[in-house]
Amino acid sequence: MNQVILWIMAAGVVLGGIDRIFGSPKGYGKKFEEGFFFLGPTALSMAGMICLAPVLAKTLGRLIIPAFGLLGVDPAMFGGLLAIDMGGYQLACSLAQNPLMGQYAGIVIAAVFGCTVVFTIPVGMGIVEKEDKPLFAQGIMIGLMVMPVSLVAGGLVCGLSLLEIVHQNLPVLVFSLLLLLGLKKAPAAMIKGFTIFASGIQILITLGLVIAAVTSLTGLVIIPGMAPLEDALAVVASIGIVMLGSLPMAELLTRLLKQPLLWLGKKCGMNSISVAGFLVGIVSAIPAITMLKHMDKRGKVVNVAFLVSAASMLAAHLGFTVSEAPGMLPALLAAKLSGAFAAIPVALLFTKGTGAKASAGKTLENSSTAGETA
């Protein structure tokens, strides 16, 4: 399966490259270019954490390993609290007692739960309109409710047993339950807390990048044990290569599925912008979130619930997994697709009675699969 996906990405590279040679008349060349534009933001968001991961694992390990050991849970699960491309994978693998559990936590859990906690919630609540914040919180809650579908599907594809998956995910499930209760009872305080947490992570990543860059330039070792910056940038470059093909292919997929999804949106009582949000979200969470203001109420909730699992599946997360752990690609796709498509009917059920009346005039053509990435 890995080779099939890599060949599909290679076809996307050819599609985007040829279109760019002729001036991008079909738009695929622009997507091809975005693969390189992605390198800078990716390096800023993850290089520092990759460099710091060995040090953090050694420091946190003194607390995490005994605490998780009391529950019989692999300490790798702690790494899943960070996004896959913000150090979650490296931290999980560094803490892991079982290498398979490190990959499961660092790829599957970090791409769903970690991404939601560190990225989707704080960034989303900073972008959405004030009147849409309750709908955003409702969508997050629904997405977290069905998140066990993602965790189980990804774990089974990894080769873990159902009992192992449930046992190892106890800290994640407890944390999710607390998050659900917090979003229900005190959404403003919870969002503020996660915004502060995300800002703290960003500061830590920046400090790691600064220290690693100084070490690379001068040879001065400020923090012993840090990974070289060149190794971190090699990971970023590998992701960028995948993005050269994944963005043109995602654009092609969007165009091919436009009419079927318009039909599906009509049947589900959502406007066409809401339907377009699904296609945009699997490429990047940010443009999908910015589109919420053009969606009807039902579409807003359903899209946010969908994003909890699906965010950045065909771009950043796919590129990272192909680069760092290609053998985990089937597990990543199984987790994200199962959770995303389980969230849709549940969200539709919770929003029964709302519809697309207010935004009926919006059309799919007004939307864009902008190349911003999570």
UniProtKB/TrEMBL annotation:
GO terms for molecular function: ethanolamine transmembrane transporter activity. The chain crosses the membrane at residues 6-23, 35-57, 63-84, 104-128, 140-163, 170-190, 196-223, 232-250, 270-289, 301-322, 328-350. GO terms for cellular component: plasma membrane. It comes from Eisenbergiella massiliensis. This is Ethanolamine utilization protein EutH. Keywords: Membrane, Transmembrane, Transmembrane helix. InterPro entries: EutH. The gene is eutH.
